[in-house]
Specification:
Blueprint lengths: L1 E2 L4 E7 L10 E7 L7 E10 L2 H8 L15 E8 L11 E4 L2 E3 L5 H4 L10 E2 L11 E5 L3 E3 L6 H4 L5 H11 L7 E5 L3 H12 L3 E5 L3 H9 L4 E3 L9 E6 L6 H8 E9 L12 H5 L4 E4 L5 H13 L6 E5 L3 H10 L5 E5 L2
Helix pairs in contact: 4-5, 4-9
Bound molecules: zinc ion (2 copies).
One zinc ion (ZN) binds next to loops.
């Protein structure tokens, strides 16, 4: 290993998954991790708060690692290198995202779908993430962040942005197509900016006046309630809200040949679909699973080119629990970001 590292740090850990209101996480003193061969040790400066962190903390996702430290939208500086790292240097700004490992050899990896790798590992679920002063990342899964954006602006791009972009790709919006976004939080408001820059007409369908106002400010053509009908049939739709009840609603809003892409990692049960009203005319329902590193790099370049800017809500790292509670209660628009001063 080259570089310096202190012995201990403060880090949030999930003690026992449960309702976020009951405080299932605590902020503890832990050993600073040592970077394994091929890994970077990163001093965290900003970490975005993702709905997946809420699912990990509340137990909607099964425990993969006891007392895990959540957080997978990390921006920080490389402070030490594990053995065999040649492509990064101490002092570089990097991003740490959700996808942390794939085997590279399975049928999915070999055909370019590493997001489907059955042996994949995830930051802040299988391995400790960025709600901490320090975290590690395999160099092969880090993102170089040489963009003219602040740490706080960049953090939400690393999951909310990348996953929203994958969902947009899966929605196959035709040129100048009509795109409906169901739910308008961290991921949707970044996805909307890319879709609009690429020529789509965006309709936001979401609860909450503030979210609808934000959608209109960002250039959406209309904003209405999640269960309302959009003003015109949709070529494509993305379901960001983790609400299965909205699947038939969105399917009915699709035009012939339309595609609904479901962005979340967790969705409440989908009610029965009526074949004639909700699927016939070659309408398609697609899920979105994680992302490839190619998606991530492509999105970050587009975000820089289109000047995609996250609406951020900043909390000191010590208030991570509050940030998760506020996310669940819908107390802010855009993306929460935890920072070390
Ligand atoms: Zn694989
Ligand atoms: Zn995430």
């Amino acid at each position: 290993m080259t570089g310096e590292r202190p012995e201990t740090m403060r880090a949030w850990v999930v003690d026992e998954p449960g309702p976020i209101e009951s405080g299932p996480l605590s902020y503890e003193e832990k050993a600073v991790p040592a970077p394994a061969p091929g890994e970077l040790l990163v001093r965290v400066s900003a970490c975005g708060v993702c709905r997946t962190d809420l699912h990990v903390s509340e137990g909607d996702l099964p425990v993969h690692r006891e007392h895990v430290t959540p957080g997978h939208m990390v921006v920080g500086l490389v402070v030490a290198l594990g053995d065999d790292v040649t492509e990064y240097a101490v002092g570089e700004r990097v991003g740490v995202a959700w996808l942390r490992y794939v085997d590279g050899t399975c049928r999915f990896c070999r055909r370019g779908n590493e997001n489907l790798c059955p042996n994949s590992l995830y930051t802040g679920w299988d391995v400790d993430g960025g709600y901490a002063e320090y975290t590690t990342v395999p160099a092969a899964f880090a993102y170089r962040l040489g963009f003219d954006m602040s740490d706080v602006e960049l953090a939400p791009l690393l999951c909310a942005g990348i996953i929203g972009y994958r969902a947009l790709l899966r929605a196959s919006v035709p040129e100048h197509g009509r795109l409906g976004l169901y739910g308008f939080g961290d991921s949707a408001h970044l996805c909307a900016q890319v879709a609009i820059a690429q020529g789509a007409t965006v309709h936001a369908l979401t609860r909450g006046d503030r979210a609808r106002r934000l959608a209109l400010e960002l250039g959406a053509a209309s904003a209405a309630g999640a269960y309302d009908s959009p003003p015109e049939p949709l070529d494509s739709a993305i379901l960001f809200a983790p609400v299965g009840d909205l699947v038939p609603v969105a399917m009915r809003a699709l035009d012939r040949g339309g595609i609904l892409s479901v962005a979340g990692i967790h969705l409440s049960d989908v009610p029965n679909l009526n074949y004639e009203r909700e699927l016939f005319y070659e309408r398609e329902l697609r899920s979105v699973t994680s992302n490839t590193r190619h998606d991530g790099r492509e999105f970050l370049e587009l975000a820089a080119r289109y000047q995609v800017r996250a609406r951020t809500h900043v909390y000191p790292m010590a208030q991570a629990l509050q940030a998760l509670q506020d996310l669940k209660a819908g107390r802010f628009e855009g993306a929460a970001v935890l920072v070390y001063e």
